[in-house]
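lol ok so funny story. i was supposed to be doing the assay writeup but got distracted and ended up predicting the structure for this chain instead. priorities right. anyway since i did it might as well share w the group, maybe its usefull for someone
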Amino acid sequence: AELNLPSSLGVATNKLVAKIANNVGKAAAQKGDYPNAITLVPPGQEAAFLAPLPCEELWGVGPKTAERLRSLGLMTIGDIARWPEQDLSARFGKHGVDLALHAQGKDTRPVETMRESKSISQETTFDRDIRDGDELRRVIRGQAESVAAELRRKRLTASTVKLKLRWSDFTTFTRQTTFAQPTADAEQITAAALRLLGQSWGGELIRLVGVGVSGLGKGAQQLSLWEAPAERAEREKEERLYRALQFLRQRFGDDAIKRGPSE
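and the output, tada:
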């Protein structure tokens, strides 16, 4: 309300009724206006709320199913709720059982509050088209660092790096590369993204650039059996550096400290 942003929300005891309540709230908004409604269905009132609504409001009721329901005289969700479940099952199979339960406002599906990430990415849209290579590389380094920090925060590694470029004509180009071993190392991700830039960009005007990683997996990076003591010491030093960077960014913001370009 403070920002005057349009919003619509359905609140109920399960996902099915909440989604339908949200749809009802949107439809009730004045035509030509953005949806701005909160529709609450109190516990125990699910079936009564659904009863007068057209059968098409139920999940899984498309045009063909709606036509079959209407041929039986079932115009509203309440009509479906009053129809014998055995008859619905005989006519529609398992879908008929779902129809009977949903028409009564019953939905046992759990609400997923967390969903595992399949990719992590950062994108920057410039306020003007650019072809400054130094600027592009600076932005890509920052994006790669942010992506690596997010990997480490979630204790993940990535096997693939993707570079996304959008030209001045809004054509979008992507190219990706895969590591021999999954990593969360910012230097490796940065180097891979910059190599992709060198392979993909020939000086064209750029409107957007993005760096992303995918092929995410849990756990620490796989270490080489033949890692030399000096390499191990360098890796552990980098680990301490990244932990310090992550602490500073969490406390003071992402722009609190950044790596400078290597000579």
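Strands lie at 8-11, 37-40, 119-130, 156-167, 172-183, 206-214, 217-218. The chain has two domains: 8-103, 119-252.
back to the writeup now i swear
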